[in-house]
From TrEMBL:
Lineage: Bacteria, Bacillati, Actinomycetota, Actinomycetes, Micrococcales
GO MF term set: DNA-3-methyladenine glycosylase activity; metal ion binding
Family matches, as InterPro entries: Adenine_glyco, DNA-3mA_glycosylase, DNA_glycosylase
Binding of Zn(2+), residues: 194
The name this protein goes by in its record: DNA-3-methyladenine glycosylase I
Domain of life: Bacteria
Coiled coil regions in record: none
Keywords linked to the UniProt accession: Metal-binding, Zinc
GO biological process: base-excision repair
SUPFAM superfamilies: DNA-glycosylase
PANTHER family named among the record's database cross-references: DNA-3-METHYLADENINE GLYCOSYLASE 1, DNA-3-METHYLADENINE GLYCOSYLASE I
Amino acid sequence: MIETSPADAPPSASGAIIGPDGLRRPAWAAVDPMLRDYYDTEWGVPVRSEHALFERISLEAFQSGLSWAIILRKRPGFRAAFADFNPDRIAAFDDDDVARLLNDEMIVRNRLKIRATITNAQATIALREQGGLVDFVWSFQPDETPEPATQADVPTRSAASAALSKALKKVGFVFVGPTTMFALMEAIGMIDTHLQGSHRRGSSGVWG
């Protein structure tokens, strides 16, 4: 999940904080302008295109074990290095591309995660024969969404994220564990974990 996915707020973080603009946000999005803008304009907004969803899955995988702020700051570098996250182009990456990426200071240089991105691009293409990545992922939208009052109330995984993780692995994806998939579900609006009182609560239009 992004609040612990970006791990920029402690587990004991309180409820939504009033910012200088008078709007309430969680602690992780209340100070850093980059994170605040991401929270206000992107996080929790429904993603329903293959390209955008593949990018989110890829970046969530790279985030594993790191602060989301690191990934967000490097996102322009990631987009340049990974052909703007075009699955068809990435699926054709070879050992020379892996070597190039391992020398690219603009991204997180992790061999396993780089190869996972290539593997997941190939799996994304294969999944088109089953209706495509978007319909596949969104089919795991749960019937209910969390309603956290404080950061401590936000889960880090769920039955739905575990099921999505298992299903994606079955069709060839890697680095898509239940916690990572919960973060994805938050980021793309499949669930709404905006804190009660946050000015973004209910903004996705998915949960009202």
